[in-house]
């Protein structure tokens, strides 16, 4: 990964902060009202006769609806790629009497390309909606290899980006056939893998969507997916598996030390983790229910926060930000002899077995530092273009009138937020801060986990903010956020953070202002 001079970074981000703060404040608002629901011109049963090259309708079902979901026509299609034989399933849900004239596609998560069940929410809001399995059934990563053990390149490419584009053009054609008109606006809505899928669309197929909502996007998929097992490799190689309660003690200590950083209030949330300079060595000797934290334990934690490095110390990928939980990626368990051993995230095992080594029986415990570095480089070389959504040149999407709203929780344990910040900074460099802020914005949510959860204020309706931006020209400077106990907080556009004014109730979002972040250099050397 290339690096940039610190002064150049600060110059770009200072200009970005100025552009953000100068923009008018916009709250999410409903789109301009339609004259009324738009009715179909075809009967649901007639959609069985829908034709398109390489496409077969496999099911048509008329849903009567219930007290929550309107009546709809559900169409399932099989779309085949004539070049490589790849096949994706596409689900389209069409409101019978409540269509708002718009199309919304919904993304997947993990190794799942998407599901039919995700269409209920957009249906309730009046959207014609679609999703795809992106070429394989279910959430497992085993699809990377065929049953005979050979690589399934078509399935890999469909998951990478081809499947979503096939779904998009097919679903739009179905919408036009059923209603007799194209959708007035088309939107992408996804988080995690769904966020990556949305960025892929903006980068590779800039005319597919008018607005893209990309939450916690896996921008650099091969780097992230390979880097997730780094902590397990370190614990294995240093023979220092760390029990859960020691990690929990470290997390609690970091939050306590940096609680007021960024926002200026004590609320159990680090407002700006990148400005947190917590010293892990202060934990040495801390007694926990599962043992005393040692210098060896702290050394492992430091390397987890530092992130994956090569055997010569070169930067590979970002580590865990302070305030994000260790749980999930750094779990350990007891073996038959009662000894603590690593218990890696299953997705990481799938990735290494079915995409990197092409060996379903590969033992992750054979991975040393040198082997890890080799797997990391292989992942980037093999999948950087196919699955990575890291191209900063969004000029075609911008020129098509598209709007991109990205958001990411600062306490995300799985998809490290620095990767999203890194990408946004490169877009700013590529297109310029002023131009970028007119069509692409990033919001960082303190204390929020992967797509949801955590102690911080959860984004209330980022999709509504995107629609208001696309259709009403309301440029978002903040997103509304609310905690589990009802406290409100603005989620500010990067690189600004929400800081309490010192006046009024800190639980009232109106008492905060967006100010430039204290520390803006986030790029690792």
Automatic annotation (TrEMBL):
Similarity annotation: Belongs to the tannase family.
tRNA-binding as UniProt keyword: no
The keyword Zinc belongs to this UniProt entry's keyword annotation: no
A Pfam cross-reference name: Tannase
Coiled-coil ranges from the UniProt annotation: none
Record organism: Geodermatophilus nigrescens
Keyword tags: Calcium, Disulfide bond, Hydrolase, Metal-binding, Serine esterase, Signal
One term of GO molecular function: metal ion binding
Source domain of life: Bacteria
Protein name: Tannase and feruloyl esterase
PANTHER family named in the record: CARBOXYLIC ESTER HYDROLASE, FERULOYL ESTERASE B-RELATED
InterPro entries: AB_hydrolase_fold, Tannase/feruloyl_esterase
Signal peptide: 1-28
